[in-house]
## 1
Amino acid sequence: MLRKIWYGAAVVMIMLGMMTSVASADVGDAARGKVLWEAKLCKNCHGANGEGAYAGPRAGDGKSADEWVKQVRTPRANMPAFNDVQVSDQEIADMWTYIQTQPKPASFAPKQFPLSANASAGEQLVAQKRCVACHGDYSGTLRFRFVTQGRTTIDTATVLKQLRTPAQNMPMFSAEQVTDEQAAQIAAYLQTRLDAVAAAGSTASAPNTLPVSGGSQSASTLPWVLVLIGVAMLGAGVLSKSKRAA
Ligand code: HEC
Ligand code: HEC
């Protein structure tokens, strides 16, 4: 009788462990999703709680996790694309799960980045294409990736390379989203900013809105602990039985 209960409990442990590990792979983990939402910079455009910022709200958007994956890989409208090295399908599912816990905002008006009085075409473009959501006025990026590394020019080729094959966690902008001609206008603007940032030297404070790299995550271990305990219980049961038989 006792032995039956023991084996029964072992099997339940194993099944529970396997079920929860499958379930968490399917729908994602909200706590991990919250960390990723910030680390992967989705929050810069869609708001810390999915309430909307430079782009529309995601909280209460009624989309499925699969639709989210599709949007991140092959975005519609002006959203840049993230590849699966930058953001995995599982990470998108985690972020989706987190945003499902957030309330749909009652209203939304897109955030506007302040432009200078007679803004050049390039300055207008970085606001319109939402580069400003991550780069602000570019003083952080230009200081840390150019000035401190002795890079004094930022030309069209540099900008195009970053747009089409971005380094680090920056998503990819296609030629439909930012044309080569627009990239040239952006480069001209960024060169004037680079000159200004370099001239300001070390006295200027550098607001850096960008994290250096994505956050790390560890897979949930609970399901495997359950499976292991179950297997150990089965093993112990079999062992004690064979001992008694011997
Ligand atoms: C540079 C700004 C920007 C960033 C960064 C960004 N998005 Fe978007 N996203 C947009 C824009 C623009 C749209 C289109 C409409 C809108 O919401 O204004 C959009 C739309 C979406 C949609 C809705 C698609 C549909 O079918 O309507 C989803 C889902 C989405 N984004 C998820 C994400 C996730 C996940 C991340 C981070 C991996 C992310 N976005 C990062 C700008 C951005
Ligand atoms: C979702 C956030 C995000 C958006 C939107 C974004 N970037 Fe970036 N960008 C980054 C990150 C991250 C880096 C690398 C780290 C850093 O800048 O410190 C980067 C780096 C750069 C660099 C430096 C490349 C080099 O050679 O070192 C340039 C230039 C740049 N971005 C231009 C743009 C332009 C132009 C746009 C808009 C069309 C844009 N970015 C939109 C996140 C973003």
Note: Residues 97 and 164 are 30 Å apart (CA to CA).
## 2
Amino acid sequence: MKRVILMLALLAISGGSATVLADPPKNSGPEVIDFKMGVMILPFQHRKHQTNLNNECFHCHGKKGPGKIDGWGKESAHTICIPCHDLEEKGPIECKQCHKK
Ligand code: HEC
Ligand code: HEC
Ligand code: HEC
């Protein structure tokens, strides 16, 4: 009986880790994306965000998957970028931090 439980536990562990480490993507896109906002440029560390987020593209790309994001602009940027920084208590959340003047 003990053995069966141990086996099940091992299966659960290996099954779990397979979902945590997502498959390496075929096209990971650019390493850095320069967002041009007026005269200012915000260098967005695309690759670093991917690695930090366990290669979970859905945080920003949603269900559609990697590639251009539909309707990308001010609204989508703010709804995608800011809540996560807020939640993680890491990364910029204030206007001035991203829009330096
Ligand atoms: C923290 C947010 C974020 C994460 C996580 C993220 N991306 Fe992106 N990615 C973006 C943004 C923003 C763009 C630019 C969208 C646009 O211009 O429409 C982009 C663009 C891309 C592009 C298109 C580049 C182009 O100009 O054609 C590819 C390909 C891409 N990402 C792949 C990935 C893959 C694969 C993952 C997961 C391993 C991933 N991204 C994770 C934010 C992210
Ligand atoms: C799902 C979570 C998440 C999303 C979505 C996200 N970020 Fe971040 N971001 C982080 C974390 C975590 C850090 C802190 C990384 C560190 O300290 O190493 C960070 C740091 C940053 C930084 C400062 C440090 C650096 O690496 O450049 C900038 C600028 C930034 N993010 C911009 C953006 C922009 C722009 C978007 C939207 C396109 C975005 N982030 C979306 C989690 C996220
Ligand atoms: C995490 C970084 C981040 C924070 C914080 C942030 N923004 Fe943005 N903002 C962006 C990005 C990225 C874009 C869109 C860039 C693009 O169109 O590709 C953008 C676009 C804009 C635009 C569109 C005009 C332009 O210059 O292209 C305005 C206006 C704006 N933001 C104002 C604000 C204000 C006001 C705040 C504070 C309440 C704020 N932003 C906070 C990242 C940020």
Note: Residues 4-20 have pLDDT under 50 and may be disordered.
